[in-house]
Each structure stands twice: as structure tokens, then as C-alpha cells.
Amino acid sequence: MRRLLFIVLLLFFCYSYSQELKQNQRVWFAYMGQYKVSNHWGYHIEAQFRLDNQLKQNQQNLFRIGAIYYLNSNKSFTAGYGLITTYNEGVDDYFKENRLWEQYQYSKNWNESKNTIIHRMRLENRWVEKLILSNNSVVSLGSSFQNRFRYLNRNLFRLLNFKSTNEELYAILQNEVFLNVGDNKVNSKLIDQNRFLVGLGLNYNNNIRLEFGYMNHFITSTSATNVMNHTISVSLFQNLDLQKH
Length: 245
Prior knowledge:
Layout: H1 2-18, E1 21-36, E2 41-52, E3 58-70, E4 75-88, E5 93-110, E6 115-134, E7 137-162, E8 167-181, E9 191-204, E10 208-219, E11 226-241
Parallel strand pairs: 1-11
Antiparallel strand pairs: 1-2, 2-3, 3-4, 4-5, 5-6, 6-7, 7-8, 8-9, 9-10, 10-11
């Protein structure tokens, strides 16, 4: 699996740098919460805010909710709904996306349970609004439908334990590739985007994680120049078992 991931990353970087690129700087803030309410059921809440590097222009807002079914402590299925608004520089306005999503996630501890590898496979059913300028007014032409498949490979490596405070410092290495599925009007290319991230995280009692990282975010375009965003990522994760409260 690691060898396959290396090959995919190598092909991605060779492809991306062989094309004309527009490069930007971005800052992402994210909150993701998973709340277990019974042995097999829980729910997911997520909010993300994606801005330019000056923290002035909001590029995208994302809100996701979902229901989780836990097969066991390492495997789960989730299905839910997402609402996304994205800034379109050409019309100086935000277009909306309604999204259904379904995923399977599997995690495994290794190296005497010090490190963790996570595999996440997600299918997205997307309705993406198209905006144009007509007589100096923004006009919506309705929504186009697209299916997209995402595979995330996420690795956490324990670095230090702070036993006095029950905290743990760890390193993060992850990559997520987005593939368009079927006949799509939003983006006709097979590879929609790729997100490669390295960073550090602080884990408190396996309930709260705060992560800082650098993300190389490559986005393809059917009609325009491809984009590479150099992104600072700040994320807060909560994983709470409400049965204990």
C-alpha cells in the first residue's frame, strides 16, 4: 500500500508540474466532530472555512452532517449531506453546491499501537450551481450533476508523550485523491484534485486533536488553467462517546 501511494504521488507531481499552473496561498480552518450515542450509532458534524492568505477573502464555506454506523472500533460507514458555497472570481459571487456523501473508513494501529493508518473511501453525489454575468447581473443557470470518488490515506506517527497532562504529540502524513466518475459536466478530467498534507498534531486523551499542517492542493480545470494552492491547515477534531456522559 505504501509503495502504491508513492507511485500515485510521483505520477501526480510529474503531471501537475508539466501543466501550466496558477499558484495561490490559502488558509483553511476546520472543525470535525464525531459523537457516538450507542454501540453502533453516532453522528458527524463538520464546518470548514477556507480563506486567502491575508484572511480577507472567504474562498469557500463547507458544512457537513452525517449518520455513522460503527461495525467495530476500527470500521465504520457514514452517510450524510453537505452544503458548500464557493467564491467565483469571474462573477464576484458565491455559487452553491448540494452534496450527498457516503463513505467507508478503516483504521489500524501498528508499531506496538504507537502509529495509526487510516483508509477512507468516499463517494460524493454533487449538484453544483453554475453562475454567469448577464447585463452586469449574476444569473444562475441551474445545477449540474457530478459523481466523485475520494480516497484518503492518513498516517499518524507518535512522537512524544506528555504523561503529566495525558497529551501526545504526533506527526501527520496524508494524501487524498479525487476522481470524477462517469459523465460529468462540472469537470471532464479523471483527476479532479489532489491534497497532500504534512503536519503536527496534539492529541488529548484520544478525545480532542488539534492539528497544524501544510497542504499542497492541486486542482484541475476543464477549460481554465490548473491551480495549485499552498495551504496552511488548522483543524480541530472531537471524538466523543456520549454513552459515558
